[in-house]
């Protein structure tokens, strides 16, 4: 026999009869079913999935309350603070979840009818969505010394951040001057050849990155993010280049001019000319022009060895470096 349900039938009318085989007696019996509050039955998905970094309704829940009472929805459980449920039974996250931070959220959906509470344990799985790598800033700068040579590192690596575990990032370069540099899988920029600040002291290039996947995880080589990098080639003082003869023959009594020298400085500094050597006191040099202090006379030499062979060292300095010719 099925137990009576007040919500289906709340009153029964029966006649009870008793017979001794000869005569029958009957009694009308009225049976009234007393209403007893029944716990609401919560229905809905107990294992929904929800994509990371998105918002919206995770799942919607309903109640079956025999008494038709108004329902108050609430949450309890390990991760109740991370989620919410509204008066319509719609379950949502308080903020967009991140698969890499937490994959499973456990809550208990509760429906209270004013007397008793129905419950449904729910485990929400946050599904992984491929996230693009990103550079932390839009522009940055690096520097390298001039003449540093092939494969010289240009400052620290220019690295992108990728929230996804296991992704392999691919870096590339573009922009004016990009052909003068390489970049490896760690974002380290290197020089293809020696750079000269006197030729070009600043390069602006773009570093590109992609993780090889689209948002749905399918293969893709589309650029995910870029950063503009200004590369400064630091000037290193370079010595001047001294040119001119180191052996000069001068006819006696022919005048004081001996030879002319030139010094080419990469930084464009005008050279400082000086003389050294055993016989330096017999000569002057001005703007690279070497002259005798007096007209030479082979029969009356003034060199240290008195053999008419004068030993002089010509020096040119840019204030930092000195080159010489003997």
Topology (SSEs and partners):
Elements: E1 11-19, E2 24-32, E3 41-43, E4 49-51, E5 57-60, E6 62-64, E7 72-76, E8 83-85, E9 90-93, E10 104-112, E11 117-127, E12 139-145, E13 170-174, E14 181-183, E15 189-191, E16 202-210, E17 225-234, E18 241-243, E19 257-260, E20 262-264, E21 272-276, E22 283-286, E23 289-292, E24 313-317, E25 322-325
Parallel strand pairs: 4-11, 12-17
Antiparallel strand pairs: 1-2, 3-6, 5-9, 7-10, 8-9, 10-11, 13-16, 14-15, 16-17, 18-20, 19-23, 21-24, 22-23, 24-25
Descriptive account of the structure:
The protein folds into three domains: 41-127, Immunoglobulin-like, CATH 2.60.40.60; 139-234, Sandwich (Immunoglobulin-like), CATH 2.60.40.60; 241-325, Sandwich (Immunoglobulin-like). The chain has 326 residues and is mostly beta strands. It is rod-shaped. The relative contact order is 0.10. It has strands spanning 11-19, 24-32, 41-43, 49-51, 57-60, 62-64, 72-76, 83-85, 90-93, 104-112, 117-127, 139-145, 170-174, 181-183, 189-191, 202-210, 225-234, 241-243, 257-260, 262-264, 272-276, 283-286, 289-292, 313-317, 322-325. The protein contains no helices and 25 strands.
